[in-house]
Amino acid sequence: MSDMNIKEQAEKVIAKTYARFPIVIKRGSGCTLWDEDGKSYTDFVAGIAVCNLGHAHPGIAKALCDQAKILFHVSNLYYTQPQVELAAWLVEHSFADRVFFCNSGAEANEAAFKIARKYFKDRNEPDRFRIIAMEKSFHGRTMATLSATGQAKIKKGFDPTLQGFDFVPFNDIKALRKKISNKVCAVLMEPVQGEGGVRCPDPKYMKAVRRLCDETGTLLIFDEIQTGIGRTGKLFAYEHFGIEPDVMTLAKALANGLPAGAMLAKEQVGEAFGPGSHASTFGGTPVVTAASLETLRTIEKENIVEYCSSTGVYFKKRLYELKNRYDFIEDVRGFGLLLGMKVGIEGNSVVNECINRGFLINCIQGKILRFIPPLIISIEEIDSLVDCLDKIFAGHL
């Protein structure tokens, strides 16, 4: 099948759930991707905040291949070493005591919803089942996770959504305090709203949310599917705010591109999941957990989180330089290498012009350019993108 036929065939056989860019990616290495014509692109999307260690990482590839030669799958009816070692790593490096493995962020959030309800059922409080989520949030595309998402466009066409979710404005403690009742089992939030526009909360708000949950006996669930695994310049974004959740969900960068998700919980909450309460056939398979373990060990060994933090500061400074130069740039925001730039022009036109010039970036909410490169992105690659954006923006004056 020729490369042109790949695109034509895709239009005939693949569900049209994505508006794809008209390029066929053939291979990648580090922060660079190549298309079918050999054109290179510096990647500031990273599979949507997934490939934190870049593409075709040799250490992860070796761990994957070595494990594949030994054992692919035996089901969670039995113990496997990579899964146990991965869970132990996550427990050691986070607030949590228990880990449930699945395959995606949506599945991790489903597990979080279930454990929150089960926790209160086990405590003879069956009326505490409602979950308060945030406006402009994003938690997934399954029926439960889209029901928990605070964006009408995600729910369009799928009514009626599942009941049990209420919404309040993000970064508004008064609204949250007013909404909490003895029917609420959990508050659900992203420490930074990635899909909602890289919206960052006030640290005082985050501490107030934790206090309110403590005062009312409500569980606090952090969706760190996009923010976790070093993306914000901390291993987990909750570390920026000096608080801990009761439950946290992870996916995306957990295995640097393989389908992996996890729901982490404190012991008291984790006890709600006993035998038969929840399951995932492919959750935590030996191959995936071996790759994930290598990903996390590499991030730790090579001080990638610290590098991301310092590089993110530099990148944000360069974006502010553009903001000072162009009046139509309204805002620059974010932590680490989860950065956003709100522009007063059509964002997708900027994305397309970047593609033509050899850079992959992302646009969300219509006019917010999002920059989520591999955490190994170099200063030189950042400078090249900023120079590219400068030229594009100059053409819009």
Please provide a brief summary of the model.
With 397 residues, this protein is an alpha/beta fold. It is 39% helix and 17% strand. The strands form three sheets. A seven-stranded mixed beta sheet has the order 4-10-9-8-7-5-6, with helices on both faces.
Major sheet: 7 strands, mixed
Structural class: alpha/beta
Provide the domain count.
2
Which architecture of the largest domain does the CATH hierarchy give at level 2? 3-Layer(aba) Sandwich
Give the class-level CATH name of the largest domain.
Answer: Alpha Beta
Envelope shape = globular
Question: Would you report the number of β strands?
Answer: 15
DSSP helix fraction:
25-40%
Average pLDDT works out at 97
**CATH-defined topology of the largest domain:** Aspartate Aminotransferase, domain 2
Q: Spans of 5+ residues with little confidence (pLDDT < 50)?
A: none
Order of helices and strands: HEEEHHHEHEHHEHEHEEEHHHEEHEEEH
Whole-number radius of gyration?
A: 21 Å
Head-to-tail CA distance between termini:
43 Å
Question: In CATH, what is the homologous superfamily of the largest domain?
Answer: Type I PLP-dependent aspartate aminotransferase-like (Major domain)
Number of helices: 14
Spatial ordering of strands, largest sheet? 4-10-9-8-7-5-6
User: How much of the polypeptide forms β-strand, as a percent range?
Assistant: 15-25%
